[in-house]
């Protein structure tokens, strides 16, 4: 089954065009959607989840028309929003059971089995009697996945799931997601490049509502091979360098600044070539976009 997004555009009431003719076909596995703040990622996720209507375009999940068959979509969609906002003062078992009923499961013993299975899968079984409102950030995220998995979804959308998680929780969350990605379409929307590098078999970069990069992490890194350069400069030289070169990142190193630059050819004799990584690719593509917008 594939998710097919065709010519999706969205302009908000204030005139802001958040999505500009987005086209994507997404198959089983982990799909990484990267983009800076305000790129349109959440707008796209909400549109796919049926929470807001686009101005134009079509979205199909297999044969199902996601924009018109909303009830049917809800049954096969798992959605973990950026922020749940409110957690009721009930324990995890009660809340999952309640959500399972809302998703249409009317068989009590089957529900019990499914809920317990999900609590085990998300490592929350020990904490199942605690109120979800008292969970830590990582536990909430795992609870979010548990609720998203109710009803055996065919499509799972997770919007910036690891922001604020400590490395161990993040790792746990990654393992859980990649397990799920083995037989489901999982869309991971984030601005954390490492999450995509570690997990996804496809990466798409969105800026200002446009797709500016699409490929496998390996493939897009390969495309940038030989085009990323670095040089150590003084702090006082950074501003000039930014005017002169397409600087994609700066790091303080032993009191000086290491700049990484995108360039088809060696920018000057003091630059040395470096192995490109996904972060270079991401920052090059978004800075290039910004540069051409000016
Ligand atoms: N309801 C709304 N009304 C008006 N403008 C909106 C609305 N929702 C989002 N926007 C604007 O649309 C653009 C895209 O926002 P969106 O939340 O989709 O981006 P994002 O890529 O998810 O960003 P972030 O990483 O910060 O969550 C932003 O400029 C945002 O301010």
From TrEMBL:
Residue limits of the ABC transporter domain? Answer: 3-233
Q: Which Pfam families match?
A: ABC_tran
The family database entries (SMART domains) matched by this protein are listed as: AAA
One Gene Ontology molecular-function label = ATP binding
User: What keywords is this UniProt entry annotated with?
Assistant: ATP-binding, Nucleotide-binding, Transport
Q: Which domain of life is it from?
A: Bacteria
| Record-linked InterPro entries | AAA+_ATPase, ABC_transporter-like_ATP-bd, ABC_transporter-like_CS, P-loop_NTPase
Whether Nucleotide-binding counts among this entry's keywords is yes
Q: Which SUPFAM superfamilies match?
A: P-loop containing nucleoside triphosphate hydrolases
Transmembrane spans: none
Q: Which PANTHER family match?
A: ABC TRANSPORTER, ATP-BINDING PROTEIN
* Family under the similarity heading: Belongs to the ABC transporter superfamily.
| Name of protein | ABC transporter ATP-binding protein
Q: Which species does the entry assign this protein to?
A: Epilithonimonas ginsengisoli
């Amino acid at each position: 089954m594939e998710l097919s997004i065709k010519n999706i555009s969205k302009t908000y009431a204030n005139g802001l065009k958040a999505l500009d003719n987005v086209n994507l076909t997404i198959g089983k596995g982990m799909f990484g959607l990267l983009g800076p703040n305000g790129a349109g990622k959440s707008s796209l996720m909400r549109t796919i989840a049926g929470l807001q209507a686009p101005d134009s375009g079509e979205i199909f999940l297999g044969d199902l028309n996601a924009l018109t068959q909303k009830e049917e979509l809800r049954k096969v969609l798992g959605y973990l929003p950026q922020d749940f906002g409110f957690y009721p003062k009930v324990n995890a078992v009660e809340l999952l059971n309640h959500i399972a009923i809302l998703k249409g499961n009317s068989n009590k013993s089957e529900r019990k089995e499914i809920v317990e299975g999900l609590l085990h899968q998300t490592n929350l079984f020990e904490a199942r009697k605690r109120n979800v409102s008292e969970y830590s950030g990582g536990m909430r995220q795992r609870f979010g996945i548990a609720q998203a998995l109710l009803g055996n979804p065919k499509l799972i959308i997770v919007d910036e799931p690891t922001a604020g998680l400590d490395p161990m929780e993040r790792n746990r969350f990654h393992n859980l997601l990649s397990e799920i990605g083995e037989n489901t379409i999982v869309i991971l929307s984030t601005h954390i490049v490492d999450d995509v590098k570690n997990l996804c078999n496809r990466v798409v970069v969105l800026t200002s509502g446009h797709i500016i990069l699409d490929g496998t992490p390996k493939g897009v890194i390969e495309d940038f091979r030989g085009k990323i350069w670095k040089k150590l400069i003084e702090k006082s030289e950074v501003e000039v360098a930014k005017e002169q070169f397409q600087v994609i990142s700066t790091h303080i190193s032993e009191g000086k600044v290491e700049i990484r630059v995108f360039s088809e050819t060696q920018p000057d004799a003091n630059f040395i070539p470096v192995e490109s990584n996904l972060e270079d690719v991401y920052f090059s593509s978004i800075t290039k976009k910004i540069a051409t917008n000016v």
